[in-house]
Amino acid sequence: MLSEEQSQKHITTGSGDLNNILGGGIHCKEVTEIGGVPGVGKTQLGIQLAINVQIPVEYGGLGGKAVYIDTEGSFMVERVYQIAEGCISDILEHFPHSHEKSSFAQKQLQPEHFLADIYYFRVCSYTEQIAAINYLEKFLGEHKDVRIVIIDSVTFHFRQDFDDMALRTRVLSGLSLKLMKIAKAYNLAVVLLNQVTTKFTEGSFQLTLALGDSWSHSCTNRLILYWNGNDRYAYLDKSPSLPVASAPYAVTGKGVRDAGNSNHKRVRVT
Amino acid sequence: MMNHDQPSAKDQCGKIWSGIQLLKDTTENKHFLPTGLEGIDTLLGGGLRQGQLTEVTGPSSSGKTQVCLHSASLVAAKNMGVVMYLDTSNSFSASRVATIIDGSSDLFELGLDLQPKDMRLKSVMRSIICESVFDIFALFEVLHQLEVSLLNDKVNNGGSKMCLLIIDSISSLLAPIIGGKYPQGRSMMISVAMILKKLADEHNLSVLVTNHMVSAGNGAVKPALGESWRAVPHVRLVLSRECGSNICTATVLKHTLKASGRTAKFVVPS
User: Fold this and answer.
1) Of B125, B130, B219, the CB nearest to A201
2) Which of A119, B88, B181, B252 is the most buried (most CB within 10 A)?
3) How close, in Å, is residue A220 to chain B by CA atoms?
4) What are the residue boundaries of the RecA family profile domain, all occurrences included (chain B) (predicted)?
């Protein structure tokens, strides 16, 4: 079991600092929840992961496909194309062209191929969301090369229209168990993007992740994205094997990268 | 006719115990299994008691899984018996077990630090059976099979019997079925409780389960699973962790031998 774990590759997030606090990147066989205020870069990170999972094995990636379940409609194809181009240019920079690397592999590094390997589902209600997740198991049985499932965002359809909170809790816990099962059975990473809400505790209002206390219990890892002045930071809030830590990151024209190079940063829109 | 070994399950059914027999059984058989976390062991009066069901509850990321991993690692490393770890959130990690053992100060006492690292880890992992469970029916199946194998004396690792059963977390499995109009959920919860207590008593196991917190109105939180579950565990601990630190606090909610309300701090080593 240990050797299996040690040979697991992680999905790089694009930012070295972020990878470090995550222990190398997003882990397969685990459900990672990423939450933050609007505008901090959750969808950007989701798209970056959908691209990064496809980095071929020769270049240190997993060479897998991605399933992207979009509940809010924030998947902008032009941006995905841009991020794919950024990823490819980084790969080519990192691995300069040599005669050993097959030219076929290099030809495959086209943004179109990256886009073609993302399976996109658009859901418009919570019943569709539940149906999509139930269908996933069959879908993954037929497409064994999917290595990441991203749900952006898991909260959206559960925030309004729910009169019965107990029903919401039951449905959500059932959903999270199914996702855990899928992650383990098909050896892929599940990434759930979540929104924030205010919570009234001990006499003050605090920002916490949406969907309640029961939901916060049902992921393996949790990453919280927040603003610190004009910089974006990520805080690893929950992990079974890593200590809590914070790391800065930036959203550039090419995608999610390390903070520090302030020329291309996308500024905070307040 | 008094047995000096642990009485078999057949003897226990319907057998009437005298006070002297009970005392003998308690002193000879009902040992404390240490968790390896000093504060918790002090609160528990030595550790997890065999024959008892201990519950660890707390908000997300307060250290519950760490308590489980520490107990499993230490009990396996000290060769006290076989540990069965039922994991519902893909949090069990062999590398974390390795880190815990390597960092443990007890090793020096046991003379285990003389063994090479991978040999040590192999012998520890052989004593831990880890299974992933993702719904309540799978849990019933696993527990039933466990019952059968324990009766046939099959669960042992070259002579040592099973002594610790950990379910992390039982509330994730029960959350999708509890609540709402139909009482089947609660009756399943009580069935699980009965089976666990029976296993603990008949086979001298210590059972450790984790629970999460739900809101109790006015911003307060309370352990999940409701009023019916409150009476089930013999010992209940509540954990909490200050944001950004490794120091967790444990409070005794219920204990069969000691007064409740006592707290202790413990550190989760990284």
Assistant:
1) B219
2) B88
3) 6
4) 29-213
